[in-house]
Design goal:
- Helices cover about 40% and strands about 10% of the residues.
- The N and C termini lie far apart (about 40 Å).
Length: about 325
């Protein structure tokens, strides 16, 4: 169903979205029915049914500004880490490592998801009151983004992770959040099959990743495409690239004085994971534990969960899906 993106935040009404949802929902294919993680296939991607209203409100209402910075990702690709890094880059003259809001707020609070937080429950927030640059995030595939994002000069920083480790991370995330409980249990190998077939939050994985990859190749000034594996292998170099891309480059003096290394240390998985807010706090929009967003962050962990035959089969699937795109992944570092 093609959506009209010409609505403004002042013209749309909650009742309009509610009515559209009631008409639209019965016609959408479903997956994981009966679970609290039920998915509906909307505009070619799997959206959590409970967030569908927020997704439509986001599409129809959000008006991008040229100075906006948007963190985009396929779920469980290093999103939390990237949010912490970008928040620290942009706000490094306002805060020091000793007084940064990261010490008391989860990165998802500091850079909110548009579709599952700011526009959740059909609300239409007034985002014009936010200071520039506005920092947002989304798991939406590029094709489904509001037109205002595509035509504006706002910058998108997209992070992806190899599909094997993403699948492992998502499986553990589901269980940490209590998504399935007694309603739905799936062995890891079976979950890999479902994930690689494309049934996952904001998937298919391949469409989500390749959409941003293609856009980054065609419009490198619009979309910066990052790989989790590269960010982990050389965080300092990647931070310099990110800072330059979003318009907050590090000066020679900052480089000399170790500012970049300070940000890397502040935003490390170990440091963020050990903060009280991330050990015991709750995610505001989902009421899930913040600790569910921090696990191992390793590259290559997936090999511990697959038989040799399953590994070979899924590698073939990956090669076929990425064929001709020019995109490839490091499975180990």
């Amino acid at each position: 169903m093609e959506q009209d993106n010409t609505f403004s935040s002042s013209s749309i009404k909650v009742e309009d979205v509610e009515h559209q949802i009631k008409e639209l929902l019965p016609s959408l294919p479903r997956a994981l029915e009966g679970t609290i993680s039920e998915l509906s296939l909307y505009q070619g991607f799997w959206c959590l049914t409970k967030y569908l209203a927020g997704a439509i409100s986001f599409q129809r209402c959000f008006q991008a500004q040229d100075t906006d910075i948007i963190v985009a990702s396929n779920p469980k690709s290093g999103t939390t880490w990237l949010k912490a890094l970008i928040f620290s880059i942009v706000n490094r003259t306002r805060f020091t490592p000793s007084n940064t809001p990261l010490l008391t707020s989860n990165p998802h609070v500091l850079i909110s998801f548009l579709e599952t937080n700011l526009y959740a429950k059909q609300q239409v927030p007034d985002l014009t009151v936010l200071p520039c640059p506005r920092l947002f995030s989304t798991h939406f595939p590029f094709s489904a983004l509001p037109e205002s994002i595509k035509v504006s000069k706002c910058r998108i920083v997209y992070i992806c992770r190899n599909p094997f480790d993403s699948a492992v991370s998502l499986w553990y995330h589901y269980h940490e959040m209590g998504v399935y409980k007694e309603q739905f249990e799936m062995p890891m190998e079976n979950f890999f099959d479902v994930y690689f077939e494309g049934i996952s939050w904001f998937g298919p994985y391949w469409d989500n990743v390749l959409g941003y990859w293609k856009e980054s190749q065609e419009k490198p000034n619009k979309v910066l495409f990052l790989k989790y594996e590269d960010l982990k292998e050389d965080t300092v170099s990647c931070l310099k690239i990110i800072a330059e891309f979003i318009g907050y480059p590090f000066s020679r003096e900052e480089d000399r004085d170790g500012v970049i290394e300070e940000i890397v240390k502040l935003c490390s998985l170990k440091n963020l994971k050990d903060l009280e807010v991330n050990k015991n706090g709750l995610h505001l929009s989902t009421k899930s534990p913040n600790k569910a967003f921090f696990r191992k962050g390793e590259v290559g962990e997936w090999v511990n969960y697959l038989s040799p035959s399953k590994k070979k089969h899924l590698e073939n699937v990956m090669q076929e899906k990425l064929k001709g795109s020019g995109l490839s992944f490091k499975l180990f570092i």
